[in-house]
Queue: 3 jobs
Job 1
Amino acid sequence: MQKCYICQLMKRLLLSVFLLLCLSSFVAFAQAPPYKVNLKFIVDEGNRDGAKIVVQKDGAAFKSLDSDGKKESVELELNHEYLFTFSKPGYITKKIYFSTKVPADVQDLEFPPYLFTVTIFKQPSTTNLVVFNQPVGKVAFNPTKDDFDYDTDYTKSIESELKEVEKKIEESKKIEEAQKHNADAELKKKAADEAAAKKAAEDAQKKAEEDAKKKAKEDADKAAKAKADEEAKKAAQVKADEEARKKAEDDAKKKAAEADKAAKAKADAEAKKKADEDEKKKAAEADALKAKQKADDDARKAAKAKADDDAKKAAQAKLDEEAKKTAQAKLDEDVRKAAKAKEDEEKRAANKAKEDEEARKKADELAKKKAAEDAAAQKAKEDEEARKKKEAQAKADEEARKKAEVDAKKKAEDDKKAAQAKLDEDARKKKEAQAKADEEARKKKDEEDKKKAAEEQARIDKMKGDEQKAAQAKLDEENAKKAAQAKADEEARRKKEQDDKAAADKAAAQAKADQDAKDAAAKTAQAKLDEEARRKKEQDDKAAADKAAAKAKADQDAKDAAASKTAQARADQEAKEAARKAALAAKAKADEEARKKENTKPKEELTAKGNGSTEITAPPGAPDNRVEEYFQEGNKKITQVTVTKGGKVKVYRKVIYSWGAVYYFQGEVSITQSVYAAEAE
């Protein structure tokens, strides 16, 4: 398979531009893989809104990340210097120096991702601005561990500065907590007063609403009673009209019976008279119908006016809606009743026409029996004229009925639209008035809120000023006491000057010696840092030179035999990677065997702080689990994780110092963050 792959590669190289493909292939193998770094950014006593991570590469801008609380991942190139800056407005900014420079013999290897955590603290408001000009930690390649790790010597060199900052932060926190306690008490009192005032206002509003509902109910009851009275009057009117109709029908029947007994001439005269009376009656009935419709319209208008008045008096939108529905229902009921009355009238007219027709036929039969044969032609002529006249009258009546029906329907629709438009207009006006009232109330509330906020701010400023004055007075009192004590000490010193002179000289000599020792230590530390920087620069220069020489040699080798060197480079790379993996596996196996040897110690030797062996045997039947505990020891926050898995128990610890340094342990053995993340988290 390998030979086949090499043959295919050679064919592709021969078919393409030989030199260009050769050089690009070599560069691809010569370039070092990217190095991945995982970051965890913690904002103490706050969230990550506005927090940022800015990364510089060799002193120039590289990347900027907006932290969201999750682990961030950044890919770095080897043999460069990076500076990570963790910041947030109102918090102390911290920096971490990260060097990815590695020896030339391991540059092509792939290192495991590195994980480190940085915690920033609030900037004290009662002390001067705290600024870390130098990085609080440095990470670089550790040849003894064959991996990247923290520079503990550098951390120790700035430990005194970090402790001083920690002291200032603790003192500031105490003062801020006292101020916050006083402010919280004031805010609670104010909240209680506002809650009481709000409750009183709500009770008053609730009472007003109940009164308005009660009045609206009374108005609705009155409107319902008025409506019932009106309907009762209408029912009585309908009954009277029905009785009048029946009486008229009885009279008509009586007149028809009398007409049957009359002679032909009398029957004709009575028929003509009866036709005239029918016309008059129909006109009277039409007038009565118009009068009734007018009365219904007047009653409907009166009811509509009362419904509008009731709707205006309603305090709640719900009652307005009910009034609107009531008016609409009443209007629909009036229209229905008018239509029913018209339908009844049409039925009565049809029945009357039928009865008239029957009476006419009966009169004609009697006239035919009594009239002579010589009057038959005349009667036929008169009957024809009467029929035509009746047909014309029936046609006119039908046209009048249709017109009256159309007019009544149109009027009912117009009345309904007018009523609906009136209701809509009233609702719109009320809505506009309510919106205006709400806007005025909102403006008034905004003004009151602004006024209250200004008063509250003034009160807080005054409270802060009083607290500062009290603190200053206390400080002045302490200074006065110290001055008095110093004066007393000075007098005692002068009195005992002769006796203490030797001791003072000795103390001065000792102080000078201490200062000289400190200066010498500082110079030594600075010299050490300078020496380390010089050595590192020499190593970097040597590594760069070695890398350049190796690259030049590789370029020459590539030019001499590109195809074979490419295949050989891949083989060498695979062999090197296999050797590295084998070395790592051997190292892991050796570490595992060492840990297993430590498991022979009893479990009781592992204390709650994680001391003792790195691994112990769990009791028989113990389930796999993970227990996380937290401790506070002075300026250290300790997270202890006990992992039970496969019958073994391991204890891990993460130690976070107040100035931001983080260390990791498995038992009493120091481990890297990546190992801790892989095994404990």
Job 2
Amino acid sequence: MTNAGRRPVTAQDLTRLRGVSDPQISPDGSRVAFVMTTASEERDEYLSNVWVVDVKGGEPRRLTTGPTKDTLPRWSPDGRWLAFVSDRGARKKSQLYAMPAAGGEATQLTDLPNGVFGQGGVAWSPDSTRLAFVTRVGGWQEPEREEDRGKSRPAHVISTLKYRFEGVGFTYDRRPHIFVVPVAGGPPKQITDGDFPDMWPTWSPDGARIAFVAERHETRDIDVNDAIYEVAADGGEPRRISPTLAPMWAPTYSPDGRAIAHAGMRVAEDGHNFLLFLQPADGSERICLTEALDRSAWDAVPPAWSADGEWVLFVGRDHGTYPLYRVRAKGGELPVAIVGGRRTVNGFSVAQGRGAVAFTATEPTTPTELFVCKADGSDERQLTHLNREWNAEVELSVPERFAFNRAGFDIDAWVMKPVPFDPAKRYPGLLWIHGGPHREFADIYWHEAQVEAAAGYALIYMNPRGSQGYGEGFSRASVGDWGGGDFADLMTGLDEALHRFPFIDGGRLGVIGVSYGGFMTSWVVGHTERFKAACSEAAINNVATHLGTSDIGWHWTVTEQGGVPPWEDVGRYVDRSPVAYAPSIHTPLLIVHGESDLRCNIVEGEQLFVALKRLGREVVFVRVPDAGHGFGALGRPRQRLERFRIILDWFAKYLQPGV
């Protein structure tokens, strides 16, 4: 049965969706700037522009135009200017621009050979005359003359473990540093330098200093520790004001300048909670504001101060939801969720003049839209409905949540019915396994799941041990035990789903996962034959080789395996590697891998493919040129659409969803 007049979702709907992100409320709280992104199959790229909407209501209007990527809108403190980063220049490098907030022509402020590194942060000075930003300094540059471009490139001479990074490329010879540029015009001034990375600039309220996060300690090449430094806004010798500890990011001064809130960890190992800290600007001992919550802050969204300086706001991770919390800056109180519900808050900002909060949020049947509320979360109102027309056109599968207990852990799980759904029929099931392992399935609009439900599959997914959002003990329970308790959780959850939802045909099951989910998919088919087909994407198939071929493997892989490197316990790494169980794999397996994946190098897919071919098993290897680790979600539109077709054709061959 289907809703009258509505159609199932298709992969092609990727080009119909409007992505809403990076909400930035003006200082007086009257308007919100945001980024709207669409996928163009014709151009095979994403197009982003800056839009603005009045908080009193009305239709949003576009501030920037053209087939460009305009991102990171930032209001000046006086509300007169809006800065943003764009690749509209001739060299297609992201540069910094500023335009009158009322609209008009944008002025290009930078023309840097390596462009502006937006991930490092962009910040206005308190007097609205300057902008601090990050760019990478140094490195080989593409020749200007056409006749020189075909000549040999220089060799990469590597002397550091941190010489490349997924999504960025080679980093060994390009250090990110802080620059300041005047809005009135003039060349950018480099504020920090040296053979170490400096990121996340933030201005002191008096405009005299800039704080930032850096790795400036002697052992920076063999650890992932950070510290917060402070430097004069005109440059000089930086002063360290925090201990050099685990990873830190997104520092932000309190309105009175006496403290710096930042996100970070106590222990530099994945699976520990990301916490919110308050670092006194005088360098005295910092305090943790969120330890008693036993939930992780979301590292993708920076924290922010309330306008009165009494609170710090942040996005947390709780049982598959991402609420917006606030916590007393003085410490000693539990954080309180001010924006909750079965949804995911994926961005927010605070009007520093008025205290209102703008945020973006998504739920399973609604792509991300923009909202505004008062400082305490009350009087919430939706400001955009950019996907309303599309939402009214399609029928979406609503996830049904359930929980089960195994070995002392309560585990959340979901089932999505096929679309259209006939209760008299039985349907093939797809078990989805998330990556990480310290990530989690959450209440979001998940396009891939909707496409697969519309193709006739029931989807089963869950948050087994290792997932975030359930406390540090739960998240750390998979460390040193990949393929152990997590595998048992998944199989128990699958059995529970089959018991609760009899329309799922247990004789027509597939399994699919990406990254750690790809590892677990490869592991599953090497340890059970209950699945008729599988798709292992961007997987780790040989844990020992992952250590040396991944951009983060030298540290992350070792800590995930309990802190013991392979040269000290070869047997442990063999026992935990799916490729070692290739002789037991009889399930037809589709291996998908991006050829430019630096997180899980394509060698991981190659090893399992060769082993299975030598064994005479049914296996297909899909190599995607110029695709990185998360290309299924972040890759170019044509890559993603082709991936949909390949995966759906693979499972249809073995699971026959139309039968």
Job 3
Amino acid sequence: MKSLLTRFEVRRTPSIILVLLLWVLLHFVFILQFNNLCWADSLPPDYAPVLACAVFLCCLAEGVLLGLLAGLAKGRALRRFIFIVPVYLYFLLICVSWALFKFGIGFLDADILRAFLVDTTAILRHFSALELLIAALALLGPLFPVLLFLMLSPTYARLRNARPAAISFLVLAALSFVMLRLVPSRFGPAEQRAFRAAISHGVLPSLGLFWSPLLIPVHEPTAPNLQAELTPRYSLEEYQRRLALPRHRPDIFVVIVEALRSDMVNESVDGQYVMPNLRKLAQTGTLLDSVYAQSTESAYSMTSIVTGLYPMKFGVRDTFVNLGYPHERVYDVLSAGGYRAGFFSSANENWQNMANLTNSTHLDPFFHSESDPASAVVMGALDDAFSHAVNQGMLKTGKLDDAVTVRRFIDWLKSSREDKPQKPLFAVLSLQASHFPYQQGVNIPAVFAPSELTAEERAQTSFLGYPPKLAPKMKNRYRNSLRYIDGLLGEIVTFLQSSEQFKDSILLVTGDHGELFHDHDLVTHGSSLFNLTMSVPVVLYHPEGSLRIAAPQHRLIDLAPTIVDLAGLPPYENFQGQSLVSGTREEPVFSSLEGLVMQDAVIFRGMKLIFDRRAETYSLYDVQSDFGEKNKLPVDDSPRVLCLKELLASFRARQLTYFRAFDLYSKYFPPHHGTLPPACQ
């Protein structure tokens, strides 16, 4: 040991470089493993290199500081104790932080640390006894890297050797300050907020715990008295203990059709209906022809339907990696009510980490394309981002033919009835043929023509754009894909109606968002919050016929509480919507995008306000008389505009305050947004 230390004392430069490389490599391996640099998706292109450089400089500064402290630890016992303890505690905090992130709670920050000190059980209750035992043993883990630093770091026992390291640390800290504070100042306020939110949300443990509070004060809106409005949280187990199960619990099945626009239920071309089976179902049941999605892209909208939570949570995109916030799904609640639940998706639910939210231990089964890789279709190049993820191995498979998914769903219905005939069933089906380019390796009959693309036209086509002259062809492809899904929907209805055991089942059909075909000079979805991408139909087939809808506003976030209501179970407060059947609160419609664009929208009393966070601009429309939003209105200081602005500001402040405060979301249910600000009263 002595010779090893002596060897490294002589070669100070190589040893300090080795220490720095080990430290930087450690952090970047963790980032690539757990975070996948997903935070960069929410930032403008100019910000990614700035943030990457800042992270690298912070890692270097930490490495120099730790090497300095470890070197100064040589000498008397008291001196070693003084300098080793901070190094050990620092390593301990970093290791604990990565462990918390791995378990979905999020990086250790000042808020979580304060909550832990005040109420230790607030964090410990997230872990099982085995996990706590492993964590206790892991507390000794940081001793190894501390000893490694003591062996590998140069000896700074003399002041003349310590001074260069101290100066190096100060220089690196100053450079980090410039990168994190001064360089972003030349950008607009919206980009600065996104930058700061990305830093504090989950780039690096030490950034959230030490660097960010010191160098980057977060200027996000807050709701100071939010706690007084919140309902104390109780667990699903407590909810189950309170239940008095109804005598009859109907089977409930939800079909979510990708990109189903609200006008497609009654759409006809040359006398042929695009979705005749869905139209017939709507005529015998209940049709809500304009229900607003809480986002216009699948990852946000789909998970919002399933969890009943608004997608806006952090000020940057939720990548479904840090899932410390409570997120009970609708089938988790139904499972407490005695339901057996299944999830069937033609998509690859690992796309954009959606499976982290859609999957659950209460599901039997969780079926998606990676569950049946042999049936997965070959992805075409037109859906470029998804195809790239499949071709590069980031996803194991593409999507499934919807016929495979429907067949697996019907087989599950049959086997479930044979296995446990008295247990009520619930299932979610996600059908994907209608996703751009509306024919992904599946043989879809061309009912509506022309729809075939030439090689030249394919070369001009991608998810983000294609020439306006191709819009009619693309819309026919879209209609054909919906017609294909409609045929499968007919098979489901026929099976349910022909089976004595399912004659009293409830069937709900909806879309996750709409679709554009050069409307507003845009295509596909995920790039705007216009009505044609926000508005979807909801068709509800109930054995008793048409249902009375009480809620004044219709939102997809209301589906989870509606399903629980239809099952005869009491409300569960973690859902931020209200039942469409029994809810009567006047609540605005909120929708958000945090990807291709950063936008928020609110619809209230026939008026709609869209706020672009990057451009810091507003757009106003009277959607009651101008549903297609063809006429933009002036954004003035009139009472109706001030009302909409206050609604958006209040919504954002309450969401961010709740989801970034561990002592709030660990003890209280999320806020409801029915409280109107003074300007709206």
